[in-house]
Amino acid sequence: MGQSSHSLPMFLRDHQSRVGQSRSGAGVDTIVLTDVPARLDRLPWSGFHWLMVVALGITWILDGLEVTLVGSLAGALANDNSIALSSTQIGAAASSYLVGAVLGSLLFGYLTDKLGRRRLFYVTLLLYIVATIATGCSWNFWSFAVFRFFTGAGIGGEYVAINSAIQELTPARYRGWTDLTINGSFWIGAALGAVGSLAALDPSLVNPAYGWRLPFAIGGVLGLLIVYLRRFVPESPRWLATHGRVEEAEQTIVAIEDRVRRSRGSIPNVPAGSQMQLKRRDGSALMEVMRTIIHHYPQRTVLCIVLMAAQAFFYNAIFFTYALVLTKFYAVQAGSVGDYILPFALGNVCGPLLLGRLFDHIGRKTMIAATYAISGVLMIVTAWLFAQGYLSATSQTICWTVIFFFASAAASSAYLTVSESFPLEVRGLIIALFYAAGTLLGGIAGPAIFGALIDSGSRNNLMWGYMVSAALMLIAAGTEAMWGVAAERRSLESIAPPLSAIDR
User: Fold this and answer.
1) Which residues of 25-62 are buried (b: 16+ CB within 10 A; e: fewer)?
2) For residue 305, which of 441, 481, 158, 465 has the smallest C-alpha distance?
3) Cα–Cα distance measured from residue 79 to residue 66, given in angstroms and rounded to the nearest whole number
4) Residue-level pLDDT, tens digit, the chain, 504 residues
């Protein structure tokens, strides 16, 4: 390097003494002694953390915007002669979006573990921007489905990189609430999509030939604004430390601490004895990931698959086709669908926001099991009322709003469970694998199946679809009660020691 240790800043001189090398066979392993996890976890909540919530949570706002737009614009997509999609095709296009999200999460999950969280923020966001603008230019079912596929791929990649970063940057005692709030911000996007659809489908404001196309272009513009906000979110110091980039990890954590001090005035001292010994790792092979989830954490693996699959079917089957239920069974005009989705979306926002702190204080197992079970029971009651014809469009919306107040917190907690239950080095790919498994098992088939059930015109057929989704939520509640992880207020490293930890 050409510098003496005395010419380096104090934090780098201190850090130099904590890094050594030990030979193993013919190679050289870098041994890192780091207190980065403890330094992050002891920080008070500050302006830096709020910035992180906003900059990263916007991804879910975009996803909510995308999903709601397609749902709210379903009637317009069916009535526009230039594209004229059937209910089954609209459901199939929703499934195409989910397939893209699955494949995108797997690809970018591997890359986020290998290349870092921050780089992938930009790649996945740019893919989303291009694909969503292209969706507004669709000319038939196949072009619409293909562009939805790539939009989903961008969003799926965002899920992985961002859930990893949220977990690794948030202090342990706030992690549950933060994760649920960010995942729940999906419904802020849903509310914006509902309001936007009302304006887009108003013929006095927008030419009907272009009304359903305009919101997708707006989504792309919003994506460009997010690129600017992401500049202020750093790479995960935890990821840097495990990959041997010790000086960068130290510089990053010092910069974060300085930002917190400017916001809060002072920060607690680092707890004594909080250092960890790590061996440098450049990446994890797929076989190592599989060995981790199957051999080391088999119960957590089953739990995460069940939680992800149940919430994916519950949400995707119902929400992707909600507009079709309103128009076909309640004769709601296509241009008025947003009026009903807006309160539904607001209920979904309030669930994680109001219940999130209980996941940190009462505990993960109790709250996750309770929100899944309450959602399932309420769905059974609502499905029966729907089949008997006792509900109007308004009372149906009230029922959905109450159900998904709890279901939104449950769904967010599934992502929380996956992202905090496994070692850091494989976190991105593991999030992707469980997201893929849950979506394939519970999400992709749902919209297509429910689209066909709606096309049948039978309330009883649709009721049984709702009953199946409720049963899955109840099964998930029981699984959580048996095998849930008490992760509240614990460091990530105590829940699942890093693979690179020497004394794991």
Assistant:
1) eeeebebbbbbbbbbbbbbebbebbeebbbbbbbbbbb
2) 441
3) 20
4) 334 333 333 333 344 334 333 334 444 456 777 888 899 999 999 989 998 888 887 777 877 776 666 666 666 666 666 676 776 777 777 778 888 988 998 888 888 888 888 888 788 888 988 998 888 788 888 888 899 899 889 988 888 877 888 888 999 999 999 988 888 887 787 777 767 767 666 666 766 566 677 777 777 887 888 888 888 888 889 888 888 788 888 899 999 999 999 988 888 888 877 777 777 665 555 676 777 778 888 999 999 999 998 998 888 777 767 778 888 888 888 667 777 877 887 888 899 989 999 999 999 999 999 999 999 999 999 999 999 989 998 999 999 999 999 999 999 999 899 989 988 888 888 888 888 887 777 666 777 777 788 878 788 888 998 999 999 999 999 999 999 999 999 999 889 888 776 665
Question: Three-class SS string for 198-213?
Answer: HHHCCCCCCCHHHHCC
CB count in 10 Å sphere of residue 392: 10
**DSSP codes of every residue in 353-387:** HHHHHHHHHT-HHHHHHHHHHHHHHHHHHHHHHHH
**Which 3 state secondary structure label does DSSP give 204?**
coil
C-alpha to C-alpha distance for 424 and 167, rounded to whole angstroms: 10
Contact 176, 156 (CB under 8 A): no
**Predicted TM-score (pTM) of this structure:** 0.79
Report the amino acid identity of residue 323.
A
Contact predicate 490/359, CB 8 Å:
no
Residue 209, number of CB atoms within 10 A of its CB:
11
Phi, psi angles (nearest 5°) of residue 128: -60, -45
Report CA 331 to chain centroid distance, whole Å: 33
CA atoms of 180 and 60, how far apart (whole Å): 11
d(CA 420, CA 360): 13
Supply 502's token pair.
């020497």
Tracing tokens 């906000």 back to the chain, one arrives at: 229
Relative orientation angle of helices 175-184 and 47-72, to the nearest 10 degrees: 30
Q: Are 83 and 130 in contact (CB under 8 A)?
A: no
CA 479 to CA 307: how far, in whole Å? 8
Whether the Cβ atoms of residue 153 and residue 338 lie closer than 8 Å to each other:
no
Q: Which helix (H) or strand (E) holds 469?
A: helix 459-483
Contact in structure between 472 and 122 (CB atoms under 8 Å): no
Helices and strands of the chain, counted as H and E runs:
23, 3
Contact 212, 200 (CB under 8 A): yes
Residues in the chain: 504
Among 348, 314, 342, 341, residue whose Cα is nearest residue 326? 341
